# Entry
Amino acid sequence: MGGHHAASGAAAWVAIASTGPYALGWYPLDATGIVIGGMATAGTALVCDWDHRSSTVAHSLPPLSNVIAVGIENASGGHRQGTHSLLGAAFFVLLAAMAGQLQLQTEWGLLSLGAGLLCMFMINIAAKALKLFPKYGWISNWVFALAMAGLVTWLAPHQWTWLPVSMLTGVLVHIVGDMITTGGVPLLWPLVIKPPKFLRKVPLFKDVWKANGAFSIPLLGRAGSRREWFVLIPVSAYAMIGMFGAALALGKAHFPAAVALVSELVSSVFGRSLAG
# Structure
């Protein structure tokens, strides 16, 4: 499900970019990188579903996102085809690598123009999937997208490699997420290698190597199943805690007085509640 893909992407980014407890720290970044990268990776974890014109992603920034969806749908062969393959993943990472290197040195600092443009879509896609926008209308979508584009352009980490790392993380999280449902994914697209007929009736094997050539390890069952919710609730909590911690550290660094005031107000409110 879309929201679960977004939460998984953000959680994966927190795990690899944070050096705090319960994190892997494979690609360590400061608080700014964790916040911006987390929002971006929530979106890159949905980019694979930009392959059919009726998807949530396709309606994230109309009419531009709709036009892009039609193009990707035609090029990839439809939903859960090319964008859910190893070749599709490589294409998205290459696109992010090219965008990440589009930077401009100015008297105000280094501006990440390519990252801002790409994240204009990625962050908006995540917000749309998480139902942060009205179901109908598009003005709020574009206002939010342009604001996020400006934020990322100004504050993105200077090392351009964070963007392809974010894309790789999100796309892999999405493909693995779909692979552990009953639908499976065509990892080897455009090659379609179907199992021999005598194997299509073998228990367990037929669920792993589908008759249409897709591969699946259906640990979660159908998309949206209770098992999926059971797994994604703690994953979402992990993402929220990691992002909140990074945002708080970012606030303390740039707006210490405001953070101190908010903390004092919260402590006062909870103190009165407990006393009452």
User: Anything to note?
Assistant: Residues 226-254 form the longest helix (29 residues).
